[in-house]
Amino acid sequence: MRARRAVIPPVWSVTSLLMTEPHADNPEGGTGANGDSAEAGSEADLLTHYDILRVLAPNPGPLTLSGTNTWVVGRGPAWVVDPGPLLDEHLARLGAAIEARGGLGGVALTHDHHDHTEATSALLERYPAPVAGGRGAVDILLGEDVRFGPFEAVATPGHSPDHYALVADGACFCGDAVLGEGSVFITPYRGAMHGYLLALTRLCLREDFNVLCPGHGPPVWDAQAKLEEYLAHRVDRENRLIVALGEGRRTIEELLDAVWFDVPEQLLGLATATLAAHLDKLEDEQVLPGGVERPKFERTEW
To answer: What is d(CA 188, CA 253) in angstroms, rounded to the nearest whole number?
Structure first.
């Protein structure tokens, strides 16, 4: 068995700030992430049919994939979803996009994790505008069905308690609830896993968007299939966990080896957080057997 540590690092602590590919000077041109032509075509479709621009931050890493996505929506004025990290190049490209689209109407935050919000203050110094988010020092506090500019807020807890998806004009800006590639980790606050599964189900039942614009990774054009994939993934993990518990596995290491065997070593801390959320859910449902080792974390707020 591999040695494992039940410590979850802050999202931003393992993020590389090195840029792997140059970006085009035109704020509404250039290739997709990492220069991929198929991804560039996808982004061109998004721009043409939805008037949505992805400004990819140069902060690739294990948790951010190709980088954090900042989304610029509409024009006259434009609206920004998740300003992203505080990097000069990213702010310059975002500012150019805002100016090309007639100024800034407002900023909406899917959640307050550092890699999505760090540039907010600097952006607002240059383009004063209201900010909406699920908690913290915001002008508009998001809640279920709250409207902000073109967006309708949909509660999507799980990755963080304050997480909201934002639906506008046929697109769903889903932050870290759903990624363009891979899966997300669920933070271990009470009720996180139940809330996350419910949120995915509710998004599946909506009929007012066709494309997912995630916090990391490329746009997802088959939104329904991706949401169903995410639900199936979480159910599969839970079923594997129940089987492992039925086989008498009780330690964190044993459960991770049985259920998260495919997770790279560098992401085991995040897998441990998700394990904790699954165990909380099973305990709330009164199906968790006795004697299970529970992960402990240095952080108390998520």
So the answer is: 17
